[in-house]
User: Fold this.
Amino acid sequence: MLNGQKVLITGGLGFIGSTLAHRCLALGAQVTVLDSLAPRGGGDPRNLQGTSALVVRGDIRDASVVRPLVQAADAIVHCAAATSHTGSLDAPLESASVNLLGTLQLLEIARADRPSVRFVQVSTSSQLGPIESTPATEDHPERPTDLYSACKSGAEKTALVYHVAHGMSVTSIRLPNVYGPRARLDVPGPSVAAFFIGRGAAGLALTVFRPGEQLRNFLFVDDAVDALVRALIRPEVVGRVLQVAHDEHHSVLDFAHAVAAGIGGRVELVDWPAGHRRIELGDVVLDNTRAREALGWRPATSLGDGLARTAAWLRARERGEA
Ligand SMILES: NC(=O)c1ccc[n+]([C@@H]2O[C@H](COP(=O)([O-])OP(=O)(O)OC[C@H]3O[C@@H](n4cnc5c(N)ncnc54)[C@H](O)[C@@H]3O)[C@@H](O)[C@H]2O)c1
Assistant:
């Protein structure tokens, strides 16, 4: 499938990028990773230790580093991002610089030097903002409530312009709340999944803003990576946006209870901190029909299994074996 293909993964020392790198290597690809190990990011060199991936430490905004890597690539999966929702409100220019301008520069280098490259943009379902009609499809309006999501939306539209205007092979894959092995649990402004799993692993209170009944879509990282690999090899998804999501939805409270049961910690209901309510999305119920049809993909991992595999990985990492 990917045998002998040269795959460049930006942000490839991070949670999703490194898991994708392992999968691509297993499928016979030659993998190069570009990652700046951003101080507030989820990158961790241990994620690719002992693999044959070529790891280049550098910033996607540094054209002199990016250009030769793009020139040598058959495919690019663009995972690098400043991912904190609340952090983007504290540092909006940094968010725009990495998430929007960094993506634009990568695409522009590809257009100039490697226009035939396959380009997969990793986007986020949080671009939609509050969901108005459920289940939300790819056609749902986008009204993001934080700047990370707004910049990711802009990056997705920018990538699609390179398909429409320049004929490049671009696909955008929107992901929901992804959880699983290799997520760093100690970074500021974590995702809701990383927050609970980190607290659970430390045996701390899993603090849920009461009543915690809003629904979310939690997807195990291997399932997300499976969709990204399919997007790389299926020509029929060029020019498309696909929402890769689990069939099942769980409330934040249920997720916290599942983490307490599978990993550790105890659930505690608390009041909302100031400011959080304004960027809250309510129920996020997503439709995955198009991804199922176009990618021949389906989510394969239940929440219980995914958390059990995450717990096993946490124990292995503690022993220095992962
Ligand atoms: N984790 C999720 O739940 C989720 C959900 C939806 C979408 N996504 C998207 O998936 C992608 C990967 O997210 P993740 O959860 O693996 O995050 P992560 O923080 O674990 O990985 C991102 C990586 O990008 C690197 N990076 C940041 N800025 C960089 C820069 N300027 N130059 C080079 N590298 C840089 C970081 O060092 C980090 O290793 C992102 O594009 C994110 O928007 C993630």
Summary: The pocket of nicotinamide-adenine-dinucleotide is lined by residues 10-11, 13-17, 34-38, 41-43, 59-61, 79-83, 98, 102, 122, 124, 152, 175, 177-178, 191 (CB under 6 Å). The radius of gyration is 18 Å.
